[in-house]
Amino acid sequence: MAWVYLIIAGLFETVWAVGMKYSEGFTKLYPSLLVAAAMFLSVWLLGLAMRSLPLGTAYAVWTGVGTLGAVIYGIFFFGESADVLRLVFVAMILGGLIGLKAVSA
């Protein structure tokens, strides 16, 4: 169950990262409220996952899932660069996450 919590926590990290963009520096109420709620849920689920997963693994996967989600969202919705080299480095992050899962309990 810890891995499920961790992946969901990473998805909520993506939500708050994207929400920060929409909140325009916390000047818009509803996106700012979404950011706060997503931050709370993300950290709470991370804490639940850390009950049984090692700190380094949990934190790396949490930030990695959030990073991947933010990059993918940025490419599709904000027109950010999708050049080959950038995608190679994103794939390396994904490979690292898969590797951490493979060697962790």
What labels would you give this structure?
mainly alpha, 105 residues
Describe what you observe in this structure.
With about 100 residues, the chain is mostly helical. It has one domain. About 80% of the residues lie in helices and about 0% in strands. It has four helices and no strands. Helix 3 packs antiparallel against helix 4. The protein is flat, with a radius of gyration of 14 Å. The termini are close together.
Helices and strands in order, then pairings?
Blueprint: H1 2-23, H2 29-49, H3 55-77, H4 84-103
Helix pairs in contact: 1-2, 1-3, 3-4
Short description:
With 105 residues, the chain is mainly α. The chain has helices at residues 2-23, 29-49, 55-77, 84-103.
Number of helices: 4
Q: How confident overall, as mean pLDDT?
A: 95
**N-to-C SSE series?**
HHHH
Q: What is the gyration radius calculated from CA atoms?
A: 14 Å
Beta-strand portion reads under 5%
How widely separated are the two ends?
Answer: 12 Å
Q: How is the main sheet built?
A: none
According to DSSP, the number of beta strands is: 0
Assign a percent range to the helix content.
Answer: over 70%
Global shape:
flat
Number of domains: 1
**Residue windows where pLDDT falls under 50 for at least 5 positions:** none
- By secondary-structure content and strand pairing, the structural class works out as mainly alpha
